[in-house]
Amino acid sequence: MGAQQRVFKAKINSTKSLRKIFKAMELIAASRIQKAVSRVKAASPYATALTRAVSAVATQSNVEHTLTTEPEQIRRSAVVVLGPDRGFAGAYAANVIREAEELVGLLRDSGKDVALYTVGGKAESYYTFRDRKIERSWTGFSEAPSIENAREIGETLLEAFSRDYEDGGVDEIYLAYTRYKSAVSREPEYRRLIPLEVVEAEDGSSIPQPRTELRQPSFDVDQVFPLYEFEPGAAEVLDALLPRYIDSRILAALLNASAAEQSARQQAMNTAVDNADELIKTYTRLANTARQAEITQEITEIVGGADALAASGAGD
User: Where is the signal peptide, in residue numbers (predicted)?
Assistant: First the structure.
């Protein structure tokens, strides 16, 4: 076997080995997508109902509460970036980090300090490599988050939210994550977690909504809440709902990010398998071409040698 054939043969074998790895990762991601999507669908009704409950309490009472009251001056904002722990997911990590950087830029342009919190090894390594200060980071559960993970993040954020600005506290909290839309569609977005933005409905009532940064809320504000009586009072109800609201929203974002990560990884690995197939075809064609060239050269040398022997025999 010629030198060129050995080179192409080695490339074909290594590409086939990589293809097996890509195919295995694609199948693993595909098997996890349905479970992740099921968890998103199971968690969404609770998070939505809890938001409606908070909205109902705030709408039907005039009590001022940190959950629904806009601070007079917002000096520091917390931004929580939800990224993956592992790679091999295409541009998934880059897209959510780009979305977070857009939010950070807008907040700083408006004169606010930014406190960064990260979830996932990719987001942490991005800011660490650039010597950006991270207040707190969490890793190891981006693919399978639990309510305990959401509660730990929520407690840390609420503790920072309850502190004064001079003590390193924050006045508002944003989440930057990827929302799962379908198996082939994912949308990075950022959303303000607290305080809820109060939006005036058509009937003149005030309805708090999670705010998507400086954009208009994407929720239907023309909703009518049933009448409630609060015992012992609206403020106490909001105090009880605050940690549950934070935990449910963070968990919903984590689950969306998990489903989006598996979807992105499955799609990226499928593309990698297709590229590997194309490379194998290309290397096989080049190897056959090199083999044909070597055979042609050998035949040419044999014919040339025979002609030389015939010419020398005729001369004798």
Answer: none
